[in-house]
Specification:
The complex is a heterodimer of chains A (429) and B (373).
Chain A (H helix, E strand, L loop, with lengths): L4 H14 L5 H25 L3 H4 L10 E8 L6 H20 L7 E8 L4 H14 L5 E3 L3 H14 L3 E3 L12 E3 L4 H15 L4 E7 L2 H16 L4 E8 L7 H10 L3 E5 L4 H11 L8 E4 L4 H7 L1 H4 L3 E4 L8 H14 L7 H20 L4 H8 L4 E5 L2 E5 L5 E10 L5 E10 L9
Parallel strand pairs in A: 1-2, 1-3, 3-4, 4-5, 6-7, 6-8, 8-9, 9-10
Antiparallel strand pairs in A: 10-13, 11-12, 12-13, 13-14
Chain B lengths: L1 H8 L1 H22 L2 H26 L7 H20 L15 H5 L15 H24 L5 H21 L1 H4 L10 E2 L2 E2 L3 H27 L1 H11 L1 H6 L4 H27 L9 H14 L4 H21 L4 H15 L3 H21 L4 H4 L1
Antiparallel strand pairs in B: 1-2
Helix pairs in contact in B: 1-2, 1-9, 3-9, 3-12, 3-13, 3-14, 4-6, 4-12, 6-12, 9-10, 9-12, 13-14, 13-16, 14-15
The chains are: A alpha/beta (429), B mainly alpha (373).
Chain lengths: 429, 373
C-alpha cells in the first residue's frame, strides 16, 4: 500500500462510512444499490433459464443447462468434400451461440452423425437422432436426395431440419427450414443481369443429369423464351460424375451462344472448366454464368481455369461488409486460413442462429411452437450475407449476387439484386 | 414325412442352428431393443436375403455374382412403385402440374403415367412382379452366359457391368424412376400406414419369418439331388457334364433362385425403410453383399445372416462413435477376418463351437451320447 492511497481510503471511509453510520436513508440506498445487480441478475436467470418442464413438453433432449441438437452431413464418401464446410460453419455458429449464453439459457450440445454420402444412411441417422437422442433440431443434408430420404422421417417424428443448400424448390415441409435459395431466387435475377449487361440473346443450357439442374433449366428456358425473348440454342445434361465434355464443347463452338448457362455439379466441374479452357473458351471471349460453383468448387477447379466466368449465388466470401469480414475472420481462426467459405457454408452458418431466434420467440423447444414462430414472418437475422428474413413458406428472403471469378479462386461481386421473395412453387413453370 | 422335414431343417445340428437364429430374431432382439434399433435390425435382415442368395449362388453354385444388388433393387423398385402410386392420389398431389402421378414425374415434366407403371396399381400384380421380374431378368442373363459356358471371373465381371448399367439407366431415366433420389415418401400399403411403430413391429416379424423360410427352402434344395450336383459342379464341372447332366440348366436355376431371394429382401427393405434408391443396385452395394456372405462364411446359410448382422451393426456402431474414422475401422475389420478367419464366422463356429452343439443335439435325442459314439 502506498502512502498516497492510504489517506484517500481513510478520507473516503470517514466521509461516507464513519460520518453517517446509522442514517436510514443511507441504509436504504446501500440495500438498493447492492440489490440492483442481484435483482437484475436473478431476473436474467429467470428470463433465460425458464423451467424445463414448461419449455419442453415433448420430451426432447433438453435439460436445465443443456439442449442437444444433431449435425447430419457426409463426413465420408463423395460428398464429404462439399459438406465439410457446412459442418464447420454449423459448429462455429453453435460455439458462438454457446459463448453468448446459449438458447433459452441452455448450452447447445452437438451429436454429429455421418450420412456417408448415402441416402439410406441419411434416413437411418436422422431417425437415430430423433428417436434415440431426441434432438431439438437437426442441421444437415446437402443433396436433394439426402433431404428427400430424411423428409419422411422428419414428418413422422415431427423433427426440425435446417437445410443449407440452394436447391430446386417444389417442396415445402413444415419440418424444414430452407436456408439456401430455391431455384426461382437463383435463376431470374441472374438471367436479367446477363440479358441487360451482356446484351445476351442466345443461351446454351448445360447441367448434370438429376433433379436440381433439370428443374432449374426448366425455369430458365421458360424465362428466357417468354420474358427475355431470347433463344435457347442448346440444352444438355451430362451424367453425374461425367468427365468428358468434348462433344458439348464442340456444339457450343458451333452454336456460338451469347451465354453458357451452366449447372454442372461436383467433381465434373473440374473437367468441364479445364476442357473449356483447353478448347480456347475463356472468360475473355465467352460469357458463362454458372449456378453451381462456389469457393469450395473454385478451389478444386483452379482459379486460372475459372477466371472471368460468373457465378450466381447469394453469398461470396469476398463480400465487402464489416459483418462478413468479421465472420470470415472468425471462420478462419477456427478452421484455418485456407478453409474456403462458399455459399452453402454461409447458409449453413445461418441455421443455428435462425433456430435460436425461433426458439426464443416461441419461448419453447417444442417443434410445433418453434414452427409457429418460424411461420410468423417476424424472424430475421443479420447474417454475413446481410439481413435475411424467414418467410412463412419456410424459405429465406434474400438477395442474389453475381460474382466474377478471379485467378486466386475468389470472386469480385459485380451485381447485387434487390431482395427476392422465395417462391418454391412458381406458377406457369 | 420325417425325412422331408429333416431336409428342410438340415439335420439335427441344422435344426439347432435355426432354433438359435429364430430365438435371436423373434425373442431376444425384440425383447432387448427399442423400436428404432429393431427397425434397423429389420433393415439389416433384408440385406441378409441377399447374403443368403450369395451363399447359394457363390458358395454352393461356384459362380461369384457381383450383381446381386440388381435383384435386390428390382424387388425393391417393384414394391416401391406400388407404394408410390398409392401415395400419389389426386388429392395429395393436387399442388402438381399434373395431379395423380408420382411427384418426381411431375418435376421431370412427365405428364402421364408411363405404361409400365400402370399395372403396379394392383398389389397382386406387384407381389407377382417381385418374384417374376427378377426371375426373368436372371433367366436371360443365365441363358446367355451359362449356355455359352461363361464362368468364373468373366461371369463376375459381366454381372458387375450389369449392375453398373442398370444404375446408369435408373439414374438417367429419372422421369420414370426418380433418378438418383429414388422413389421416396412412401406411406401406406393398401391403406395401412407403414410408418407407425406397430407396422414396423409387424413388418419386422414378417421379414423374420420370410428369412427363416428362405433358409429352410435353401436347405431343402441343398439336401436334394440338385444340391449334391451343385457341389459336384462347383468342384469338377467337366465330370458332371460328361456324366450327362445339363450343367447350364442347374446353374440357371440356382442363379434365378438367388435372384428371387434377393428380390424378396429388396421388397421387404422398401416396406420397412420407406424408400428405394439406386444406391442399392450399383457395384458398391453388390460387393458389400458379397462381404456379408464372406464374413458369415460363404458355405453357411445361417452364417450369412450373422455376417450381415455383424457387418451392418459394425457400420452403425462405428459410424456413430467415429463419424469420420469409421470407414478405416471397417476396413481393418475386413482385413482381419480375411487374414485370421478365412472361412468367416461359420469357420469359427465349425472349429470351436460345432462340437458342443452336436453334443447338445445328441443330448436331446433319445440315444445316450456314449452309444452314438
Amino acid at each position: 500500500m502506498s502512502k498516497k492511497e492510504m489517506p484517500q481510503g481513510t478520507a473516503f471511509q470517514s466521509e461516507v462510512g464513519a460520518g453517517h453510520p446509522s442514517s436510514p436513508l443511507r441504509r436504504k440506498l446501500v440495500t438498493a444499490i447492492a440489490g440492483i445487480p442481484l435483482i437484475s441478475a436473478s431476473g436474467l436467470v429467470l428470463a433465460a433459464n425458464p423451467p424445463t418442464a414448461k419449455i419442453n413438453t415433448t420430451k426432447l433432449a433438453v435439460t436445465d443447462t443443456e439442449v442437444t441438437v444433431g449435425i447430419l452431413h457426409s463426413a465420408t464418401g463423395t460428398m464429404a468434400i462439399s459438406e465439410t464446410g457446412a459442418i464447420q460453419a454449423e459448429k462455429l455458429a453453435i460455439d458462438q451461440i454457446n459463448a453468448t449464453g446459449g438458447v433459452l439459457g441452455r448450452k447447445i450440445k452437438v451429436i454429429q452423425e455421418d450420412g456417408a454420402s448415402d441416402w439410406p444412411t441419411f434416413a437411418e441417422k436422422a431417425k437415430k437422432l430423433l428417436e434415440e437422442n431426441h434432438v431439438a433440431a437437426i442441421f444437415g443434408c446437402w443433396t436433394s436426395a439426402s433431404r428427400k430420404a430424411v423428409l419422411p422421417v422428419l414428418e413422422r417424428d415431427n423433427g426440425l431440419l435446417y437445410y443449407p443448400t440452394f436447391y430446386e424448390g417444389l417442396e415445402q415441409s413444415k419440418n424444414v427450414v430452407y436456408t439456401g435459395q430455391e431455384a426461382t431466387q437463383q435463376v431470374f435475377a441472374g438471367l436479367d443481369w446477363v440479358a441487360k449487361e451482356k446484351k445476351a440473346k442466345t443461351f446454351y443450357l448445360i447441367g448434370s443429369d438429376y433433379i436440381w439442374p433439370r428443374t432449374t433449366m426448366k425455369l430458365a428456358r421458360k424465362y428466357i423464351e417468354t420474358v427475355l425473348h431470347g433463344k435457347v440454342v442448346g440444352e444438355e445434361y451430362a451424367a453425374l460424375g461425367s468427365t468428358d465434355f468434348g462433344s458439348t464443347i464442340n456444339k457450343i463452338r458451333l452454336k456460338k451462344p451469347d451465354v453458357i448457362y451452366a449447372a454442372v455439379v461436383g467433381g465434373s466441374n473440374v473437367s468441364w472448366f479445364k476442357q473449356l479452357k483447353a478448347a480456347g473458351i475463356n472468360g475473355q471471349n465467352q460469357t458463362l454464368l454458372t449456378l453451381s460453383v462456389t469457393e469450395d468448387e473454385a478451389k478444386g477447379i483452379g482459379g486460372e481455369n475459372l477466371a472471368g466466368f460468373y457465378s450466381a449465388m447469394k453469398y461470396f466470401q469476398s463480400l465487402d461488409t464489416p459483418r462478413n469480414k468479421e465472420f470470415v475472420k472468425q471462420f478462419k481462426a477456427k478452421w484455418g486460413a485456407t478453409a474456403p467459405i462458399g455459399d452453402v457454408t454461409q447458409a449453413a452458418y445461418e441455421g443455428p442462429w435462425l433456430w435460436k431466434a425461433a426458439v426464443e420467440m416461441a419461448g419453447s423447444f417444442d417443434t410445433d411452437k418453434v414452427v409457429k414462430a418460424e411461420e410468423s414472418g417476424k424472424i430475421s437475422y443479420d447474417a454475413p450475407e446481410g439481413m435475411v428474413y424467414l418467410e412463412p413458406n419456410h424459405h429465406l428472403k434474400t438477395r442474389l449476387r453475381i460474382g466474377k471469378w478471379r485467378n486466386d479462386g475468389q470472386a469480385d461481386i459485380v451485381y447485387t439484386s434487390d431482395y427476392i421473395m422465395p417462391n418454391p412453387f412458381p406458377k406457369g413453370y | 414325412m420325417q425325412a422331408i422335414f429333416n431336409k428342410f431343417l438340415g439335420g439335427k445340428s441344422g435344426a439347432i442352428e435355426l432354433l438359435i437364429l429364430s430365438a435371436l430374431i423373434f425373442l431376444l432382439l425384440p425383447a432387448t431393443l427399442d423400436i428404432f434399433r429393431l427397425n434397423l435390425v429389420g433393415k439389416y435382415l433384408t440385406y441378409a436375403f441377399a447374403a443368403v442368395s450369395l451363399v447359394m449362388v457363390w458358395g454352393y453354385g461356384g459362380v461369384l455374382s457381383l450383381g446381386q444388388g440388381v435383384f435386390f433393387g428390382l424387388g425393391g423398385y417393384c414394391m416401391a412403385m406400388f407404394l408410390k402410386l398409392e401415395a400419389s392420389d389426386p388429392v395429395s398431389t393436387a399442388r402438381q402440374t399434373t395431379p395423380g402421378i408420382p411427384d418426381f414425374m411431375d418435376w421431370n415434366q412427365v405428364t402421364h403415367l408411363p405404361l409400365f407403371w400402370v399395372p403396379f396399381h394392383s398389389l397382386t400384380f406387384t407381389i407377382i412382379a417381385v418374384f417374376v421380374v427378377p426371375t426373368v431378368f436372371a433367366y436371360i442373363i443365365g441363358v446367355t452366359m451359362f449356355k455359352r459356358r461363361v464362368g468364373g471371373v468373366y461371369f463376375s465381371i459381366i454381372t458387375q457391368a450389369i449392375a453398373a448399367i442398370l444404375t446408369i439407366l435408373v439414374v438417367g431415366q429419372q422421369g420414370w424412376t426418380g433418378g438418383i433420389n429414388g422413389i421416396t415418401d412412401l406411406k401406406t400399403l393398401h391403406g395401412w400406414n407403414i410408418n407407425t411403430n406397430s407396422a414396423k413391429y409387424i413388418l419386422y416379424y414378417v421379414n423374420g419369418v420370410l428369412l427363416i423360410a428362405t433358409i429352410m427352402l435353401c436347405r431343402y434344395v441343398l439336401a436334394s439331388k440338385l444340391g449334391r450336383l451343385l457341389l459336384a459342379m462347383r468342384d469338377r464341372e467337366d465330370r458332371v457334364r460328361f456324366s450327362g447332366y445339363d450343367v447350364a440348366s442347374f446353374k440357371i436355376f440356382t442363379f434365378c433362385l438367388g435372384a428371387v431371394i434377393s428380390a424378396i429382401g429388396g421388397a421387404m427393405f422398401t416396406l420397412q425403410v420407406g424408400f428405394m434408391s439406386p444406391s442399392f443396385i450399383g457395384i458398391v452395394p453388390s460387393i458389400e453383399m458379397v462381404i456379408f456372405a464372406a464374413i458369415g462364411g460363404r458355405m453357411s446359410l445361417v452364417g450369412a445372416v450373422y455376417g450381415t448382422l455383424l457387418v451392418n451393426y459394425g457400420k452403425t456402431a462405428f459410424s456413430e462413435s467415429f463419424p469420420s474414422l469409421w470407414l478405416l475401422l471397417m476396413g481393418a475389420m475386413f482385413i482381419g477376418v480375411v487374414m485370421f478367419f478365412p472361412n468367416g464366422l461359420a469357420g469359427l463356429y465349425d472349429t470351436y463351437l460345432k462340437g458342443y452343439v452336436s453334443k447338445l443335439g445328441a443330448m436331446f435325442s433319445r440315444k445316450p451320447v456314449g452309444q452314438q459314439a
